[in-house]
TrEMBL record:
The keyword Membrane applies. This is Major facilitator superfamily (MFS) profile domain-containing protein. Residues 1-45, 492-526 are annotated as: Disordered. CDD domains: MFS_NepI_like. It is a multi-pass membrane protein. GO terms for cellular component: membrane. Residues 1-42, 512-526 have a biased composition (Polar residues). It comes from Lithohypha guttulata. The chain crosses the membrane at residues 78-100, 149-166, 172-194, 206-230, 236-255, 298-319, 326-345, 357-378, 421-440, 446-466. It holds the Pfam family MFS_1. It comes from the Eukaryota. Keywords: Membrane, Transmembrane, Transmembrane helix. Its main location: membrane. Residues 492-505 have a biased composition (Basic and acidic residues).
Length: 526
């Protein structure tokens, strides 16, 4: 790919999520760049040879931006299909880090000479690290330039991964598992960026491609890990994952464009002062925006049913009347992989032309239908679990695309915080689904756990109707239920014309630019 392959356009990025050209030039001097430059200048004043600081040379290399990827405020880079696919592949490979362990816990117990219960701490710590990373490392994406921040996190994760490949100490393995889970949040930094850069008339399509990559990573990790570990050993899958992560790092280094921060800070000190308010903002946003709270709850119940199904499915297929071995059970992931092709097609043909809640309703209904079929057919025919696996994956993917499309519009300058709030809801849903699903299955079996899944998804469907798509209140139906998005391209063109004609050169927009530099410096917004 050459520099010409990344096309350029003259207009500002859609949604006007950041300020005008003057603000863009200022925002490129982000906290990352200012921090390193100020340190280097101080070293020169103190007579210190910067060349003796290897970490600075390494940092400069990792965060270096090739000429083809540098930001030009006069000609912003277009979010192309190539970049969309690149982000999806990066998310797929990165999120897989959290799921390689699931099918091979018995091998961990054998090789580290620990009990099965102790081996179960490995995926628990991976998910715990991921949750902590979502809360602590995701929100700064609203302050920092995304390219250097994402590259640093990918590099840290891939480098720490070497320890997982070679260590023979169980305690060290647990610590490294937590740390790699902590830094495996780069897909959740990419999702808000896609929501910011994708054109309005194909925002749902762009998000669906990245969501498909994430779900594909979850399913492929389990399948690949089980097969590789069965035939050549579990450490080989870790070495494969190490190589894949460095391939992603290299591709992002060469082709990921550098975008300005949406809330640029003057220096590291300003960034650190703003950081605590970022965390508080996550909670505040949930109670301020009904759409976000609604999406968080729907995501919680949908993900709880999803996790409960895939957890208890292993018990069903391993017992009577099926008695499948682990390899056959692992092949059920192929059903979900096939379902991944649904999302982009449905988003492009339907969701881009409808209100976001329409996709959430359709996805939740498909999910509910799958739960009903699987629950009442699963004990007598394997067709039930197969159909439920397909419908559950399709339904969850569709509802997630709708939820993300809706929430990214509520606070354009705070998309990482909005995304963090939503993903914390999804994460707690996964924890709830695992615990409740296992407990109910142990007491009542497949039908009882399936009934719980039906109740969870059904409650999520009810939440879709507590407010209309055009009503900004917590409850109500003002504006009716018209799901069509009318005159989208005309509205977008009018916004571009208005934006260009109303602003003077060098003047920040009152609605966005004037708040960009001050909104995070003090808790005025709270």
């Amino acid at each position: 790919m050459t520099g010409q392959d990344i096309t350029r356009r003259q207009s500002l990025p859609n949604d006007h999520d950041t300020a005008n050209n003057t603000d863009y030039r200022q925002s490129t001097n982000s906290a990352f760049t200012n921090g390193i430059n100020s340190s280097s200048a101080q070293d020169q004043r103190d007579g210190i040879d910067v060349q003796r600081a290897p970490w600075r040379r390494l940092y400069s290399f990792i965060t270096y931006t090739p000429a083809r990827c540098r930001y030009d405020p006069e000609q912003p880079l277009v979010f192309s299909n190539w970049l969309n696919v690149l982000f999806a592949c990066a998310g797929c490979i990165t999120v897989a880090n959290l799921y390689y362990t699931h099918p091979i816990l018995n091998l961990f117990a054998r090789d580290f000479d620990v009990t099965d219960q102790e081996a179960s701490y490995i995926p628990t710590l991976a998910q715990a690290g991921y949750a902590v990373g979502l809360f602590l490392l995701n929100p700064p994406g609203d302050l920092l330039r995304r390219r250097p921040y994402i590259l640093l996190l990918v590099w840290i994760t891939a480098t720490l991964w070497i320890g997982l490949c070679i260590t023979t100490n169980f305690q060290v393995f647990l610590v490294l598992t937590f740390l790699t889970g902590l830094t495996t949040v780069t897909p959740q930094l990419m999702m808000p960026l896609v929501g910011e850069l994708a054109p309005k008339d194909r925002k749902a399509t762009a998000l669906s491609i990245v969501v498909s990559g994430l779900l594909l990573g979850i399913l492929v990790a389990r399948l690949l890990s089980g097969v590789v570990a069965l035939y050549i050993g579990w450490r080989y899958i870790y070495w494969i994952a190490f190589g894949l992560q460095y391939i992603v790092l290299i591709l992002l280094w060469f082709f990921m464009p550098d975008y300005p921060s949406t809330n640029p800070q003057e220096d590291w000190l300003s960034t650190m002062k703003a950081y605590p308010w970022l965390l508080w903002d996550i909670v505040r946003l949930i109670f301020q925006h009904p759409v976000l709270a609604q999406s968080c709850l729907i995501g919680l119940f949908s993900s709880a049913a999803f996790t409960s199904f895939w957890t208890t499915l292993t018990f069903l297929l391993a017992g009577p009347p099926y008695r499948y071995d682990s390899l056959v059970i692992g092949l059920f992931a192929l059903i979900g992989i096939g379902a991944m092709s649904w999302g982009p097609v449905f988003a492009r043909t339907v969701m881009d032309k409808r209100q976001p809640i329409f996709g959430v309703i359709v996805g939740t209904i498909i999910n509910l239908l799958g739960c009903i079929i699987g629950t009442f057919v699963g004990r007598s025919s394997v067709v039930g679990p197969i159909l439920q696996a397909a419908f559950t994956d399709i339904g969850l993917q569709t509802s997630q695309i709708g939820n993300r499309t809706g929430i990214y519009a509520v606070e354009p300058l705070k998309r990482n915080r909005v995304n963090t709030a939503y993903m914390l809801g999804v994460f707690f849903g996964q924890l709830m689904g695992t615990g409740v699903g296992n407990a109910v299955y142990a007491r009542g079996g497949w039908v009882h756990s399936g009934a719980v899944n039906i109740a969870l998804v059904g409650f999520g469907l009810l939440l879709c109707f507590v407010k209309g798509p055009h009503d900004s209140r917590w409850f109500g139906y003002q504006g009716g239920w018209n799901m069509k998005v009318r005159h989208l391209k005309e509205e977008r063109n009018n916004e571009d014309v208005t934006h260009v004609s109303d602003e003077k050169p060098g003047q920040l927009p009152e609605s966005e630019g004037n708040t960009t530099k001050t909104s995070m410096s003090k808790p005025a917004s709270t």
